[in-house]
Design brief:
Helix content of chain B: 25-40%
Number of helices of chain B: 20
Number of strands of chain A: 1
Distance between the termini of chain B: 38 Å
Shape of chain B: globular
Largest interface: A-B, 28 and 48 residues
Number of strands of chain B: 20
Strand content of chain B: 15-25%
Largest sheet of chain A: none
Number of helices of chain A: 11
Strand content of chain A: under 5%
Oligomer: heterodimer
Shape of chain A: elongated
Structural class of chain B: alpha/beta
Strand order of the largest sheet of chain B: 6-7-8-3-9-10
Radius of gyration of chain A: 23 Å
Radius of gyration of chain B: 25 Å
Order of helices and strands of chain A: EHHHHHHHHHHH
Structural class of chain A: mainly alpha
């Protein structure tokens, strides 16, 4: 009478262990929170302002005075990297929030009512999705011109279609469920049925995709700024800093480009780990 | 009995580690199946039936700790290597899954699915595979070979899908067939056919069949022996007739008594006075589901006329697809009739606007088939029960009080109000469903198969509750069901629906004792019955 541990047979998908998921989630949270704290409390970590010019130190290598050196305007790189976090995090989160809210509303209305309304809305969204997202963002940004408000709008608007589709797909399933029928027979109107039952139960995918998307939004924002379509010049922003510093690379002054690059990588990695960890946890809860 | 049984499970213990401790799914179970024998494994959900089947086929969930022996032809399945298991599954033991439509690969035709199994396991390709496939399908009683072979699973009816499933299981000529609730979701006539088929496979081919079921009446029809499982332990085992006629354990007796008996005499209920105005008035109603994307529409109701008076309970009987659920949904405003005249408590169903729907919700409520599915997983029980009160403008405090009161009537205390659906059992969830239907005090309640998703013992309790709640007899009730015995014990009048038409209606005793229509007769003949009282001394009625 042997005690047997049935083993995972070959070909079965590998499951990450609970520990691995927790490590992902904590690492992601630490990275994101770390950057956020450094950005929000930037004045505590640096004596220099982000646009403050030190005329005695232009293109200076890292020193005790300027720990990451200065750029061609004599601005402190460390300080600019910190303050950039405010803009990059803020714009990315705000744009994803806009996309989630508007996209979910469009998706839920189209999916719930169906019919011609659904057909028209989905065709319009498909037209938008036919363009590569970043190219679309470029075009819209070029039309609107630079500025933080415009950036939020651009990065947000281009990801509306994907959220609308995600939500619509879930709504199509949820609206057929018995509890939605039950709600309809209780005499409450469509708006209430949607608000109470359909929408809250259709946000599963959005909840896991949104954090991943914040990472993407930061990249898009940095990319636009790098191309000069984002934040106006003196403002600190990672993409713009890298763009400004490109001329320094050939002359070996790497301190103007590497730090904002690392900051971007850390943020994107953090949000990816968070998103993936949340997704994993969600599927696990479902399978239990 | 032969010397070596086909399947010999000895003292099997299965433990499943969960977050806070260990679930003992099986606690030392012994089950034997001989060649040519049909053994029924009976029990309610959570009893360990499925775990036992998984052990027999060597598919215990990952991380499970199994102790004991699962001997198949003398070899222990638990000790088998991966390659031995591959051989064992299919050739040794084959499984028919609970919902055949879901267990068949949706993107491959029946022909391809059979070929998929015949090629690796038996080396049959091309013409040989086709011929063998046809032989298999014929052996499970499929005549329409051409159509079925090239059909996708969604194009098959439930009964047909079940047969294909069995044909697939038979493809590798297994010694033992495991049938996990093979009749769930099938109508009485199809259930009978499926069970007859299993019986035939055992008798003619000398296979062992292990029939897993919660339905003791179905099992009684075909099984040589019955094993009753409860909380991972065998509470009773023996030849079918002995178990049925003289159950040794109280639990078995409970299961048997919970089966509504088609042959038990009933007292006709007093017919309410004809003078009362009918609550439900349906006259020559047609309902067309509109065609979508070139597909043909579906004519679900074809000229249905029906009246239900206050205090009356009317049973609607028919097979799936007959239109009985459409009729029920129409009466609560979930679908709109296309032609005819229909009203509930004076609310015209033909053109329900916003205000019409609100008025109808006060007049008619529905109790759903899947009690847990009818509750929003993110909302508390309080929210669920009080929802019908929202359009009536009842204050929050009043809503809570009324919910508590109505919940008490269904036998649940106030602490349930703050719970969420996943914390409820199926029976509790259906009590909540009934409470919700009652809370706004409607004139009509439509019960759409309210017990079909529940365990038998719970079914009996819920039916009892429904009866108790209408003692004052003011409400009209419609009871949709495919379970004839339940309808018989429960309803004043019966309406038989077939292909969207009412083919017979009358008093319950009238329809059951003297069916007029051929279809009604066939339906009655196919219903599973427990043959009680075959033994000289009938079993005592049992202590309540």
């Amino acid at each position: 009478m042997a005690t047997i541990m049935t083993k995972r047979t070959k070909g079965m998908p590998k499951r990450r262990s609970d520990v691995a998921v927790n490590v992902m989630l904590t690492t992601g949270a630490v990275l994101v929170l770390g950057v956020a704290i450094l950005a929000i409390f930037a004045p505590l970590f640096t004596a220099w302002g982000p646009v403050q010019i030190d005329p005695t130190a232009i293109r200076q290598a890292p020193s005790p005075e300027h720990i990451l050196g200065t750029d061609q305007n004599g601005m402190d790189v460390w300080s600019r990297v910190l303050y950039s976090g405010r803009i990059d995090l803020g714009v990315a989160i705000a744009s994803v929030a806009i996309a989630v809210v508007i996209g979910s509303l469009i998706g839920v209305v189209a999916g719930y009512f169906g019919g011609w309304l659904d057909a028209i809305v989905m065709r319009i969204l498909e037209i938008f999705q036919a363009f590569p997202t970043f190219i679309l963002a470029l075009a819209v940004a070029a039309m609107l011109g630079p500025g933080i408000g415009n950036l939020i709008a651009v990065v947000g608007v281009v990801s509306i279609p994907s959220y609308a589709r995600l939500v619509r797909a879930e709504v199509r399933t949820v609206r057929e469920l018995a509890y939605v029928d039950a709600a309809k027979t209780s005499g409450i109107g469509s708006v209430k049925v949607i608000a109470r039952h359909v929408l809250p139960n259709s946000l599963m995918a959005v909840r896991t995709v949104a954090p991943l998307n914040v990472g993407w939004a930061m990249l898009a924002l940095a990319g636009l700024s790098f191309l000069g379509l984002g934040v106006p010049v003196p403002e600190p922003e990672w993409g713009a800093m890298i763009s400004q510093g490109t001329s320094d690379i050939v002359s070996g002054r790497l301190w103007t480009t590497i730090p904002p690059g690392i900051a971007l990588v850390v943020c994107v990695l953090g949000f990816s780990l968070l998103g993936e960890g949340l997704q994993e946890r969600e599927t696990r809860r479902k399978s239990r | 009995m032969s010397a070596t049984p086909l399947l010999d499970i000895r003292d099997l213990k299965v433990d499943i580690p969960v977050r806070d401790g260990i679930v003992h799914a099986l606690r030392g179970v012994d089950v034997r199946v001989e060649p040519g024998e049909v053994v029924g494994l009976i029990g309610e959900s959570g009893g360990g039936k499925s775990m036992l089947a998984r052990a027999a086929i060597g598919m215990l969930p990952y991380g499970t700790i199994a102790d004991g022996e699962v001997l198949f032809g003398g070899r222990d399945v638990l000790e088998m290597t991966k390659s031995e298991l591959l051989e064992h599954r299919g050739h040794g033991v084959a499984m028919c899954f609970q919902s055949p439509r879901a267990a068949l690969e949706p993107l491959r035709t029946v022909r391809k699915q059979l070929a998929d199994r015949l090629r690796p396991h038996r080396g049959l390709t091309g013409k040989a595979a086709v011929e063998e496939s046809e032989r298999l399908l014929r052996s499970v009683g499929i005549v329409d070979l051409e159509r079925v072979m090239s059909a996708f699973p969604h194009e098959l009816s439930g009964g047909m899908a079940q047969r294909v499933m069995i044909a697939l299981a038979l493809a590798c000529d297994p010694g033992l067939l495991l049938a996990d609730e093979p009749t769930t979701g099938l109508d009485v006539t199809l259930t009978r056919d499926a069970l007859d088929l299993l019986r035939r496979l055992a008798v003619e081919d000398g296979r062992g069949v292990l029939l897993i079921s919660h339905d003791i009446a179905a099992a009684a029809k075909v099984c040589d022996r019955i094993v009753v499982l409860r909380s991972g332990e065998v509470v009773e085992e023996g030849p079918t007739q002995e178990v049925l006629n003289a159950p040794a354990s109280d639990y078995t007796r409970l299961l048997i008594d919970a089966v509504p008996d088609l042959d038990r005499p009933i007292t006709p209920m007093p017919v309410p006075p004809e003078t009362a105005a009918p609550t439900v008035k349906v006259e020559d109603v047609h309902l067309h589901y509109r065609a979508r994307f070139g597909r043909k529409g579906h004519h679900a109701l074809r000229g249905v006329s029906l009246e239900v008076r206050p205090g009356e309970t009317v049973g609607i009987v028919g097979e799936s697809g007959s239109g009985k659920t459409t009729l029920a949904r129409m009466l609560v405003g979930l679908v709109e009739p296309t032609e005819g005249a229909a009203s509930v408590a004076g609310v015209d169903l033909m053109h329900l606007g916003r205000s019409g729907k609100r008025a109808l919700s006060r007049a008619a409520q529905m109790v759903f088939q899947d009690p847990l599915g009818a509750l929003d997983p993110r909302r508390t029980i309080l929210d669920a029960i009080t929802e019908p009160l929202l359009p009536l403008g009842v204050s929050a405090a009043d809503r809570r009080a009324r919910a508590a009161a109505v919940l008490a009537r269904t036998g649940l205390d106030e602490t349930f109000l703050t719970r969420y659906p996943h914390q409820l059992s199926g029976g509790q969830a259906q009590r909540v469903g009934i409470a919700r239907a009652l809370v706004a005090d409607p004139q009509l309640i439509v019960f759409d198969e309210p017990t079909s998703a529940l365990d038998v013992t719970v079914q009996a309790q819920i039916l009892e509750l429904i009866k108790e709640l209408n003692v004052d007899g003011r409400r009209a009730q419609l009871f949709v069901s495919h379970d004839l015995a339940t309808v018989r014990s429960f309803c004043d009048r019966v309406v038989v629906v077939y292909l969207g038409e009412i083919i017979e209606q009358g008093t319950t005793t009238g329809v059951f004792d003297n069916p007029q229509h051929e279809y009604t007769k066939a339906l009655l003949a196919a219903a599973p019955r427990l043959h009680r009282g075959d033994v000289a001394a009938p079993p005592s009625k049992g202590t309540k």
